[in-house]
Amino acid sequence: MPRFSIIVTVHDVAGRLPTALDSVLAQSFTDVELIPVCGAPDSPAGLLAAEYAERDSRVVPVTGDRNAGLRTATGTYVLFLDPGDVLTPQALTAIDARLRDAGGDEGADAVDCLRLGHERVPWWEGEPTTDLLEDADPGDVRLPVWATAYRRAFLRDHGLAFPAGRGADLGWAGLVALAAGRTEVLHTVCVRRHERRQGTGGTTAGAPAELLDQVEPVLERAAAQGLPEDRLRALFGQLFAEVLDELAAAPRGRASFRRAGRLHRRHRPAGHRATGPRERLLRAGAYTAFRALLPLGRRTARVRAYAARTVLRRRRVLLYGWYLRRPLDENLAVFAAYWGRGYACNPAAIHRKARELAPHIRPVFLVKEKELPHMPGDVESVVIGSRRYWEVMARAKYTFNNVNFEHAVRKRPGSVHVQTHHGTPLKRMGVDQIEYRAVAAATGSFGRLMQRVDRWDFSLSSNAHSTEVWSGAYPSAFEHLEYGYPRNDRFYTAAPAEVAAIRARLGIPADRVALLYAPTYRDYPRDVSAQFDLARFCDALGPEFVVLLRAHYFLDGDAGLRRAVADGRLIDVTSLRDTEDVCLASDALITDYSSIMFDYANLDRPIVTYADDWDVYRDTRGVYFDLLAEPPGHVARTQTELARVLTSGEWCDERSAELRSRFRARFCAFDDGQAAERVVRRVLLGQPEEELPPLIPLRERLPVPAAAVSRPRTPAH
Q: Is the pTM here over 0.70, yes or no?
């Protein structure tokens, strides 16, 4: 009996099915049974499911609906996914550990339902919405079916099955909530849903009636069960919140409105209070007034939202202004990276060194609220936008950021701001973008940009090229600190044992050459999956190599990518937070125009440039130098050429070493493993330049060696 049965329901649309299936088969936890449920075995989805079954015995295709998949399942716990859902890496391991911590799988203490943290990604690939269920009611029927693990014996013993018709998820969730004994929550993102774009046709007239067909049996069973009043009130409120939303969206629904009113009056628990005028009008049967209320309600909601934003803005201004009148805290330092996206990059490296060399300084790190669970436990974190945030921003003597702080932040006399940046510039930056229309439009007001730049006291550089670019792209009075990038210190200070540990954690076989593939972002439309077939590329490389993919979101969902992951030829490291770890674990880099090449060159490991659209990128984004004339290694313009460079051994030949040597001489001048110490001693300890650690000559530096490849060393300078 497998531990988990994963049922993936397909409505004969095969396009996104591989994404879901591969996310299950790629899990390190392998005690699973994968059941794709398709409408017909000869449909595109059915044929694709059959292909998976031929490759992996854990795949058991079924024809029918979710109930057919449930009847086929033999696992201890069951999960339901749709084609747009994926399990996050290590999700099943986390779920299994949470269930084992909670107790056994049988008896009164068994967990019937485990609610899972989840994430919704908008169809336009915008900022995902994460729900870690910190404050969720485990019995909430509105929690998604696709983010719950169900004990199969519990479902079997209570005869639970998905009801027919639209809105079945709500009916199922209601019946499960009534029957479940013990429900637990896992505060970790285990499922990521890629939302599908909804058309503009609106809700159909019959939709409320179909939803009521799901709600009515739940209410009747709850009444027959004699549910405690508090649970009954909660269930009733949740169900009718869904009903009211459906009625409001329906263009014509008088009959459904009357039916809903009868249900409301018949099943309303004692002590239940209406949540607003919509529910009161439903109870009274006032359909005309209910319809008339909707436009007014929408206008009122917009007015209230605007008023709330105005009040919050005024409160923020008053609060921040009050803190600005208090004296600077001479021992307070604030750090932030990538607009609050976590503990990373140069600010994190400086933060670590500050705690070592300047213990009198109190360092705090700014993050978005959703990043708090991922922060190191010994790092004091402050949520951006909170009251504490405005206090530390007003009173901190020192601030460090690899991007700009928001425009409302004021630069106080006596405070010190260090702009650490987050890469060596190949593409145009700052005011140098003005002549490139698409990029300039995305940047916004250059006047406001320069106001933020005027807050800088220091700007970090890792090479003379960067110093020159920062001077022109951000013309202001700041001082350049040509100390190197602190995040690159690890490339010289890490031990070989640390590299081996990272590779083991990522699952890189000891006998494989690990190629890090890290493409950059494009400011123009690009069908990446059509232009670079990762599965075919991995096939062409052969068994000697494994590819570490650090992708942007535009590669997410590519079927070829997921098959390569499932076959073990490719490891998706996109979600890992420490880029330095991924670089250390690899033996060579494949990139296009990403600034990661400048950092990676410090490792003195081979770099191959894949420049299939260089002309478009150069003309659209603007660049500071011709990368193809001064590359860090061999250049490939087609996928076939790229595979040949790698399989022939050219990627690590003497020509590659010569090109890398020239590249390192220009772009790795200041990175010697002591950058963070220089910054801390100069900025936080106030030491003069002559007391800082002297620069180690490039020819004397010893970057941590690669794990799997012996290759010619770069010639000395």
A: no
pLDDT in the model for residue 550? 84
| pLDDT > 70? residue 161 | yes
Residue 648 CB neighbour total at 10 angstroms: 10
Classify residue 182 as exposed, middle or buried by CB count within 10 Å of its CB (0-12, 13-18, 19+): middle
Alpha-carbon span 639 to 533, nearest angstrom:
8
Indicate the helix (H) or strand (E) that contains 713: none
- Residues, the chain, total? 717
**Two structure tokens written together for 184:** 């637990």
φ/ψ of residue 270, rounded to 5: -65, 135
45-51: long-range contacts (C-beta < 8 A, 24 or more apart)? 45/10, 45/11, 45/12, 45/13, 45/14, 45/17, 46/12, 47/14, 48/14, 48/17, 48/18, 49/10, 49/17, 49/21
The pLDDT tens digits of the residues spanning 52-107 come to: 999 999 999 999 999 999 999 999 999 999 887 899 988 999 999 999 988 877 77
Give the model confidence (pLDDT) of 238-287 as tens digits.
Answer: 999 999 888 888 767 889 999 999 999 999 998 888 888 888 888 888 88
Return the DSSP state at 487. G
- Give CA–CA dist 80/118, Å, rounded: 13
pLDDT, average across residues 462-482: 90
Rounded to whole angstroms, what are the CA distances from 487 to 160, 337, 492, 548? 54, 12, 11, 20
Residue type for position 575: S
In this structure, which amino acid lies at residue 345?
C
Assign 483 to helix, strand or coil: coil
